[in-house]
Amino acid sequence: MERSEEYIKNERKQDWRVALQKKTKAKDRMSIERALMAETEPEVRIKSQRIEVNTGLTMEQAVTEASRCMDCVNPTCMEGCPVSINIPKFIKHIECGETLEAASVLKETSALPAVCGRVCPQELQCEQKCFYVEKLNQPAVAIGYLERFAADFERESGHVATPEMVASNGIKVAVIGSGPSGLSFAGDMAKLGYDVTVFEALHEIGGVLKYGIPEFRLPNAVVDVEIESLRRMGVKFITNYIVGQTASLDDLKADGYKAFYVGSGAGLPRFMNIPGENANGILSSNEYLTRVNLMGADSEESDTPVLRGKNVVVVGGGNTAMDSVRTAKRLGAERAMIVYRRSEEEMPARVEEVHHAKQEGVEFLTLTNPIEYIADENGRVAQMKVQKMELGEPDSSGRRRPVPVEGSEYILDCEVVVVAVGVSPNPLIPNSVEGLDVSKWGTIEVVKDKMQSSIPEMFAGGDIVRGGATVILAMGDGRKAAKNMDIFLTEKYLSN
Amino acid sequence: MNKIVEKEHFSEKIVKIVVEAPLIAKSRKPGNFVILRVGEKGERIPLTIAGANVEKGTIDLVVQKMGVSSTKVCDLEVGEYITDLVGPLGKPTEIHNLGTILCCGGGVGNAPLLPIVEAYKKAGNKVITILAARNKDLIILEDEMRKHSDELIVMTDDGSYGKKGLITEGMEEVIKREKIDECVTIGPAIMMKFCSLLTKKYEIPTVASLNSIMVDGTGMCGACRVTVGGKTKFTCVDGPEFDAHQIDFEEMMSRLGGYKQEEVDKYDQFQK
Ligand SMILES: Cc1cc2nc3c(=O)[nH]c(=O)nc-3n(C[C@H](O)[C@H](O)[C@H](O)COP(=O)(O)OP(=O)(O)OC[C@H]3O[C@@H](n4cnc5c(N)ncnc54)[C@H](O)[C@@H]3O)c2cc1C
Ligand SMILES: Cc1cc2nc3c(=O)[nH]c(=O)nc-3n(C[C@H](O)[C@H](O)[C@H](O)COP(=O)(O)OP(=O)(O)OC[C@H]3O[C@@H](n4cnc5c(N)ncnc54)[C@H](O)[C@@H]3O)c2cc1C
Ligand code: SF4
Ligand code: SF4
Ligand code: FES
């Protein structure tokens, strides 16, 4: 639930916080070095899709790291967090050894702390705004590591707390899509007393958290525990149900649903439309990652096949490209390569992912762009023609535009190519709902900060509104939508 | 989980199952398909909805044993459950009153063809149906087709039933005899290709229903892409039916073999 600035300031003055503030001198806090995350050795981890790379902080490391935090009067870190986690409060609980309390602070505002602690681009969000970075030009407090630590501790302790709940008001709301946005919305609405049902097209709950992000970065078990918490809060989940196809929105209204939250994601893969792209062996990152992560195709026991090759090229430079190329390595590729048309500096992937990929032996062919695919006599891709690029003037995104270098083409051998050049919004809902305002990019238009669409009882957020974004932004949208839908529904049905 | 309430063997390799799926039964239209999965390690495979009973809340699926996944479906008995079933998927067939329609089904393609034949007939068309297969045992749904067709022609490659010859020979006979306003063809890719070549010669608008490889069936993966009129389309959301004269059948057939080796390996493993 939302806490005012005032409230947060007063909490900081509580006895236990004041005592902690006094216990260690600021200078001593600032002289501690930032914790290093332990990782599984690259040679070991590339043998399996399911060995987590980062292994978490020890209790000792976590307490030490927590004591770096200055418990600032004005905690700027919180401004960088899209769900406004009370960062100093949870960190100070860790410093006192009250890890379960720390976890419950996280749960106040985030439905999926163990997930965010792992996949949030912390370096660009909370940590970038940390006092250490802004004022001291030193490495930030490792907020993400600590968040993961507290959430993992709670999960492993078996004492998973159920958050405070308001008495049920019996009003039915439907959530379309079970990605992070839908889950975070569902959690908040359940807390507010609504009767929440989440509809998911696939056979698993979690959206990209399950079918996209690989288990070596985010184990499915971690996601499942968070989903279990939502179930305990009374949220219902219906899989294999495509809203707009299995039944229409009107059918759901007839069933008593009073309002809808669309969190249907950006599931449509983009291709480059270059010659030969429909040859066998060339697939979207969505297909590749879904086969492995959702269908378990890396395992012998799965009925779903996946293509393996000696030379695997992944086209793109985002998180999806890194996840694909590291998956290729784990499926046994001798050469797993990234082909990216700009330079490493412009890569949208998290720095940590690029670093891990390099440790694992991934090759980076930057300033290189595919222009044609060449298939063998069986129609399977065998080679790709690429062109060198150089950086020109900045484009509208502020990144320097890549320009082809004439006459620089050369041939690269490849038996599998994964195209990871972006996704577009999932068109199922925008196409099936009459009167819904949709942008020219196919995203659903909403009133900013309210997340309400042109249809009053329909709210939307996450990738379907933003195009491809991040887990935490999707969750932030879910929270905002819950708050505003609550106001909308209270006015309509609960006030006399 | 969806329960199997009836099962019938059409032939050694082709089985019809009736499955509980009340919402899909209600919302499905001719041309729609479902995606299902048998077992926790199961693969997602597409199957056309061959019929539905809204009162009973059931849909009919007709499945041919091809590899591991279709065999697992065929081996399910009455009272057992399909682990996951989602649909209806794909664009429904565009049914209009056009005059005379020639419906051509090959092998297990007769299953998806049946609801289309039914719908064309209901819309007031004259429907001539040709069913073709390698031999007598592989001709399925003959009685149901006859019920909804003005004329039914059966052809077998070996002459063991009906007329001997390829489906295109039967088609040409009809086309020479009377004016055909539209043709629908569903069956193996190679058959659809030759049907399409024939109707192109006679300038008869033709629709083919493609059975591309699929994973999600919602436009998310691109496994099902085909080239139609020079543009890449996703069979699951843009199809499965397309203007046959615009389809790049060579590419489509090549893509059907995209996982051939992997599938053979899985099948060998399954047999053990
Ligand atoms: C490979 C990969 C790696 C990524 N790595 C990171 C990372 O490290 N950090 C980060 O912050 N972000 C990352 N992202 C981005 C992040 O995952 C997304 O921004 C986020 O998942 C968006 O959440 P969402 O809830 O809007 O949608 P999604 O997670 O896409 O979920 C949407 C769900 O809705 C379902 N759906 C769609 N239509 C319907 C319908 N009509 N009826 C029922 N269900 C429907 C879909 O099946 C899907 O499950 C990554 C993305 C990918 C693909
Ligand atoms: C829209 C649509 C409707 C269909 N309707 C029917 C139907 O009503 N009855 C029926 O018997 N079959 C139907 N099929 C085909 C059916 O999906 C395949 O026979 C089945 O997936 C084969 O899987 P397998 O593991 O048994 O065989 P495999 O050994 O894996 O493959 C045999 C062949 O089936 C095809 N195939 C393999 N995997 C897939 C996949 N995931 N999706 C699609 N094709 C695949 C390939 O061409 C492959 O060479 C339909 C396909 C589509 C796309
Ligand atoms: S949710 Fe993300 S942005 Fe917010 S505190 Fe945690 S790691 Fe930082
Ligand atoms: S800005 Fe940094 S030091 Fe200050 S409260 Fe936040 S995490 Fe702690
Ligand atoms: S089956 Fe995945 S996009 Fe068509």
Which labels suit this protein?
heterodimer, A: 496 residues, alpha/beta, Fumarate Reductase Iron-sulfur Protein, Chain B, domain 2, FAD/NAD(P)-binding domain, 5-stranded parallel beta sheet, B: alpha/beta, 5-stranded antiparallel beta sheet, 9 helices, 31% strand, binds flavin-adenine dinucleotide, binds iron/sulfur cluster
Q: What's this model, at a glance?
A:
By secondary structure, chain A is an alpha/beta fold. Chain A is built from 20 helices and 16 strands.
Structure write-up:
The complex is a heterodimer of chains A (496) and B (272). Chain A folds into 3 domains: 153 residues, Alpha-helical ferredoxin (Fumarate Reductase Iron-sulfur Protein, Chain B, domain 2, Orthogonal Bundle); 165 residues, FAD/NAD(P)-binding domain (3-Layer(bba) Sandwich); 155 residues, FAD/NAD(P)-binding domain. Chain A contains 20 helices and 16 strands. In chain B, the strands form 4 sheets. Chain B has a 7-stranded mixed sheet with strand order 12-11-10-9-13-14-17, with helices on both faces. The mean pLDDT of chain B is 93. With 272 residues, chain B is α/β, with parallel strands linked by helices. Classes of the chains: A alpha/beta (496), B alpha/beta (272). Chains A and B meet through strand 5 and helix 15 of A and helix 1, helix 2, strand 8, strand 15 and helix 8 of B. The site of one flavin-adenine dinucleotide has 42 residues of chain A, from helix 11, helix 16, helix 18, helix 19 and helix 20. The site of one iron/sulfur cluster has 14 residues of chain A, from helix 10. Chain B: Pfam families: DHODB_Fe-S_bind (PF10418). Chain B: This is Sulfide/dihydroorotate dehydrogenase-like FAD/NAD-binding protein. Chain B: InterPro entries: Cyt_c3_hydrogenase_gsu, Dihydroorotate_DH_Fe-S-bd, FAD-bd_FR_type, FNR_nucleotide-bd, PyrK_electron_transfer, Riboflavin_synthase-like_b-brl.
